[in-house]
Amino acid sequence: MIRKTIICCLLYSLNATAQDTKPSLMERLHEAQQYLDAKAKAKVDSQYIEVPDKPWRVILRYKENVVDVDYSQSLDIPGTNDHSDWNLCFEPPVASSVGFWVGYRGTGFSYSKSLTKNAGRYYSLSSTGAKYGFNFRLRRFNTQDAKFSSIDHEKGQTSQSDTAVNMPAPVWIRSVYVNGYYVFNGHRYSQAAAYNQSVIQRRSAGSFLLGATWYQSSFDYSDIRNFVFMIIGHGIYRAKVHQANIGVGYGYNWVPLRGLVVNVMAMPTVSVYNRVKAYKYETNYDLSPKEPVDNYGDWNKETRTWANGKTHKPILMADTLNHQFDYWEVEPEVNHSMLQLNLDLRLGIAYNWSNYFIGAQAQYNNFNYKNDHGKVNIFDAYARVSFGVRL
């Protein structure tokens, strides 16, 4: 009996010892973090790039985003050699926001609260590593404020006019921007040092970058109250673009003193895929010369003719928008083109001390696309300031 009791005690002791030596969850997480930290430090030249020991960061941000959309068309006057080149420019309010970013090394998430009314919605996500970078932006807004500019060529004379207009109904604009880049000199140069402070640039260095961009946007003012712009815009009420771009750029980190880095990056890109789908509409009004007598009568929606048998009525006789105005969608127009030149410019400044850092960043993008009747240029830029701490 005594022998059996001693054996049981020994077995229990061995089992307890084995359980005590089994790594806990926190120990495993610590080992995984040490492995990731060692891996991150091994990818860079420590004389040029410092990987902080504290991998977590909390950043407070204030940001302002600006979008400018230019929509241009050319209009020929029926029965004459006259024509007009016009441009509608939409500038929504500057989107100001405050928020925070929380992340581990170069990856994390952010949340922001808009401080501007009617500025639309704006979302962004980014991730960076020693050799790569990724950015995602989504913006959707509507506006009725516009600037109308025209150059009229009439009877051999040229005249120009610029005026502020209020669209009868809102214009909706949506854009999605996805960008990825590869850094050739990633062991000595880091974009992240200036833009999210996941690493610290210790010496000045530069690198060529290979970039790819996917961009898509939509432009929509298909409300019956905007009928005049539909008629002079060749029946186009809305358009969608899908564009893929590739490019080669160069970035440089200048380190004038310890802890301070100034980054400049420029990357021109060329579209390798550019698809524009314009949704076209037909209406019972057009730009035909005004007749001395309005004898059109009532409009028949079933036969799509006026009472006098004509299919269109001069727009100059549309004194007020009434129930007789009619429009309907026809076959959309799809165009494919290439070799559109776009531009990506970035500027970043950061200063690090102890476990704290401050920064300021700005980015400018230009996208353009066109179809047989007109073209759209979109200018998208932002500027932000930030303060962060490493944990």
Could you characterize what this model shows?
With 391 residues, the chain is mainly beta. It has four helices and 21 strands. It has helices at 2-21, 25-42, 192-195, 227-232; strands at residues 49-50, 56-76, 83-90, 95-104, 107-114, 121-128, 132-154, 157-183, 200-201, 205-220, 236-254, 260-283, 285-286, 299-300, 305-306, 313-314, 327-329, 333-336, 341-353, 356-370, 374-390. The strands form four sheets. A ten-stranded antiparallel barrel has the order 2-3-7-8-10-11-12-19-20-21. Strands 1-9 form a two-stranded antiparallel sheet. A hairpin with a 5-residue loop joins strand 11 and strand 12. The chain is elongated, with a radius of gyration of 30 Å.
Task: Summarize the SSE layout with pairings.
Blueprint lengths: L1 H20 L3 H18 L6 E2 L5 E21 L6 E8 L4 E10 L2 E8 L6 E8 L3 E23 L2 E27 L8 H4 L4 E2 L3 E16 L6 H6 L3 E19 L5 E24 L1 E2 L12 E2 L4 E2 L6 E2 L12 E3 L3 E4 L4 E13 L2 E15 L3 E17 L1
Parallel strand pairs: 13-16
Antiparallel strand pairs: 1-9, 2-3, 2-4, 2-21, 3-7, 4-5, 6-7, 7-8, 8-10, 10-11, 11-12, 12-17, 12-18, 12-19, 14-15, 19-20, 20-21
Please give a handful of descriptors for the protein shown.
mainly beta, 58% strand
Structure summarized in a few sentences:
By secondary structure, the chain is mainly β.
Distance between the termini: 58 Å
- Judged by helices, strands and strand pairing, the structural class is mainly beta
Q: pLDDT below 50 for ≥5 consecutive residues: which ranges? A: 9-14
**Major sheet, described briefly?**
10 strands, antiparallel, barrel
How do the strands of the widest beta sheet line up side by side?
A: 2-3-7-8-10-11-12-19-20-21
Residue fraction in strands:
over 45%
Mean pLDDT across all amino acids: 83
User: In angstroms, what is the radius of gyration?
Assistant: 30 Å
| Percent of residues in helices | 10-25%
Sum up the overall morphology in one term: elongated
What pattern of helices and strands is seen along the backbone?
HHEEEEEEEEHEEHEEEEEEEEEEE
**Annotation field: number of helices:** 4
Number of strands: 21
